[in-house]
């Protein structure tokens, strides 16, 4: 029988070419997946899920950590409570995680911010943890998102402290916008460039000439990630989403039954508006397709 819980680790396919990811094979009975990502340096990222009612042995946790190449970041829903990461009490699972951190000299990135919303009791807890190797601690920032994104867990974000949160992509030449006439004039390979005793110097002279001509006549793409427009997003979607976020923030500050009901109504309304807008946008798009529409 397959487990009811499934854990995945997704690596964004459009990461810069300098970011290379390699999946790792883990020999463990725990629900865990890992990948090595080469960004500024080679870092192992492991995601784990520990079901709240399952018995997890300390040896299984130790074995998992021992398999992770350092430096690593261990992320997941540990379902443990501890005052170390902002809980009011410490339970047995929390003591297990505390022992894991202590035995392996690891560092906890979490602050006291809550990462989980328990709807039946309208209470907030810290269940999702980010644990890392000591060498990574001064390099990383830990934040918790403010939007549940239709889940009961808030997204946790681990980023480089000096990254500014933006992914930089290698710029590329936009050849369709090039000024080829000017390029031909600037890319003039003269005899003096190649009439040197050193062939390496001659090749470099030609390369420098061509690159200089390209940089002055061919525009480059932006290094920032391009945002894709959602054709169905309209003013009604924006306003309903804004109202939903406003009532959610009120409920987070004052978790009363009245505020919870108001938020759930706003959330349901915003979802209906988005679905209606998506449906209408798709109908309009399909209706616009003709025999002359390009693929």
TrEMBL record:
<dbReference type="GO" id="GO:0003824">
    <property type="term" value="F:catalytic activity"/>
</dbReference>
<feature type="domain" description="Endonuclease/exonuclease/phosphatase">
    <location>
        <begin position="44"/>
        <end position="157"/>
    </location>
</feature>
<dbReference type="Pfam" id="PF14529">
    <property type="entry name" value="Exo_endo_phos_2"/>
</dbReference>
<protein>
    <recommendedName>
        <fullName>Endonuclease/exonuclease/phosphatase domain-containing protein</fullName>
    </recommendedName>
</protein>
<dbReference type="InterPro" id="IPR005135">
    <property type="entry name" value="Endo/exonuclease/phosphatase"/>
</dbReference>
<dbReference type="InterPro" id="IPR036691">
    <property type="entry name" value="Endo/exonu/phosph_ase_sf"/>
</dbReference>
């Amino acid at each position: 029988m397959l487990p009811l819980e499934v854990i995945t680790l997704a690596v964004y396919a459009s990461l810069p070419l300098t970011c290379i990811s390699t999946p790792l094979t883990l020999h463990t009975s725990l629900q865990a997946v890992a990948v090595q990502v080469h960004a500024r340096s080679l870092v192992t990222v492991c995601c784990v899920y520990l079901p709240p009612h399952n018995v997890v042995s300390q040896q299984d946790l130790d074995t998992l950590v021992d398999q992770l190449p350092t430096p690593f970041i261990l992320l997941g829903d540990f379902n443990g409570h501890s005052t170390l990461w902002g809980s009011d009490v410490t339970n047995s699972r929390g003591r297990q995680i505390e022992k894991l951190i202590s035995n392996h000299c690891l560092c906890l990135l979490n602050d006291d911010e809550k990462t989980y919303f328990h709807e039946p009791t309208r209470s907030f807890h810290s269940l999702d943890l980010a644990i890392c190797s000591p060498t990574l601690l001064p390099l990383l920032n830990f934040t918790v998102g403010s939007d549940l994104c239709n889940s009961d867990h808030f997204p946790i974000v681990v980023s480089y402290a000096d990254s500014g949160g933006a992914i930089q992509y290698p710029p590329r030449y936009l050849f369709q916008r090039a000024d080829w006439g000017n390029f031909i004039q600037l890319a003039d390979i003269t005899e003096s460039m190649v009439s040197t005793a050193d062939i390496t110097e001659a090749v470099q002279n030609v390369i420098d000439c061509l690159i200089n001509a390209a940089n002055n006549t061919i525009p480059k793409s932006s290094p920032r990630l391009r945002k894709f427009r959602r054709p169905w997003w309209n003013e009604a979607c924006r306003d309903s989403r804004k109202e939903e976020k406003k009532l959610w923030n009120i409920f987070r500050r004052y978790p009363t039954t009245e505020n919870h009901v108001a938020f759930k109504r706003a959330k349901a309304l915003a979802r209906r508006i988005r679905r209606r807008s998506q449906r209408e946008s798709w109908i309009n798009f399909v209706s616009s397709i003709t025999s002359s529409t390009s693929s």
